[in-house]
């Protein structure tokens, strides 16, 4: 049994990616490509076979592949990204999923970015206030409620996406950097972390989590909870409001 992860190579125009909450900074595309390779190697080393969505140089933000699809077991829900500049990214993801044997479904209305969808067991929190609108939440609900998911909208105004503010550890506790979380009261088990980038974990399975190298104090805190932390430098992507979660879509068997 193998786990696969979709990834998409950085565009040659990466430096033109969108920024919303941060000040624009120059992006070193060559360095970003190295960081992306390291990120893919970290996934590979943890037992995830990376599958590349075809590169798209004309789409600066395409590397942030998580925003284009949300997986619910075998069900892949293609999104309608909230930024018009990013809508065309979905086609490449759809094609890659079809080649892997999935039959993806379209979000039946509204706007929604994958980065706004946090699944914790059968709970599905969806950030609203930035890229995702209430119609997008309602549309997602019509697709996934029959699969047994409870969809809850969560106000998200301080950062780009819900998962820029909070993600979940393998024990289903939700971690966030309090100044950036609109309302921690939405999450039954909330743990504060001391750094913005410390709020972002990719669950690699087996008690291992992938984190940004920009959050050493949060990594220490999480290691102290008994998880194995693997850190990787994604600094060039963080300049564009990207996080470790958004650079891949995990296809769990
Ligand atoms: N899920 C994510 O955190 N995606 C990051 C997207 C960053 C990109 N520059 C954007 O603004 O859409």
UniProtKB/TrEMBL annotation:
GO molecular function, one term: amino acid binding
Biological process terms in GO annotation: arginine metabolic process; citrulline metabolic process; positive regulation of nitric oxide biosynthetic process
Stated name of the protein: N(G),N(G)-dimethylarginine dimethylaminohydrolase
Gene source species: Nakamurella aerolata
Active site: 161 (proton donor), 246 (nucleophile)
Keyword field: Hydrolase
Statement: the UniProt record of this protein carries the keyword RNA-binding: no
Family: Belongs to the DDAH family.
SUPFAM superfamilies the UniProt entry points to: Pentein (SSF55909)
Keyword Transport applies: no
């Amino acid at each position: 049994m193998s786990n696969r992860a979709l990834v998409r190579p950085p565009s040659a125009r990466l430096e033109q990616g969108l920024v919303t909450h941060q000040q624009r900074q120059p992006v070193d595309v060559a360095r970003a490509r190295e960081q992306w390779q390291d990120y893919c190697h970290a996934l590979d080393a943890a037992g995830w076979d990376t599958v590349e969505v075809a590169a798209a140089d004309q789409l600066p933000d395409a590397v942030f592949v998580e925003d284009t699809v949300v997986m619910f077991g075998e069900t892949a829900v293609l999104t309608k990204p909230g930024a018009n500049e990013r809508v065309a990214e979905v086609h490449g993801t759809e094609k890659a999923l079809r080649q892997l044997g999935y039959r993806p479904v379209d979000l039946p209305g509204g706007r929604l970015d994958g980065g706004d969808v946090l699944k914790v067991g059968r709970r599905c929190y969806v950030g609203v206030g930035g890229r995702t609108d209430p119609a997008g939440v309602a549309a997602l609900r019509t697709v996934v409620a029959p699969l047994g998911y409870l969809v809850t909208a969560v106000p998200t105004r301080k950062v780009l996406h819900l998962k820029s503010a909070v993600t979940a550890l393998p024990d289903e506790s939700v971690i966030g950097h309090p100044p950036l979380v609109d309302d921690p009261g939405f999450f039954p088990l909330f743990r504060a972390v001391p750094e913005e980038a410390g709020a972002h974990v990719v669950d690699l399975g087996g008690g291992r989590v992938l984190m940004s190298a920009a959050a050493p104090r949060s990594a220490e805190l999480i290691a102290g909870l008994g998880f194995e932390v693997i850190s990787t430098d994604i600094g060039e992507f963080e300049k564009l409001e990207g996080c470790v979660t958004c650079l891949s879509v995990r296809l769990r068997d």
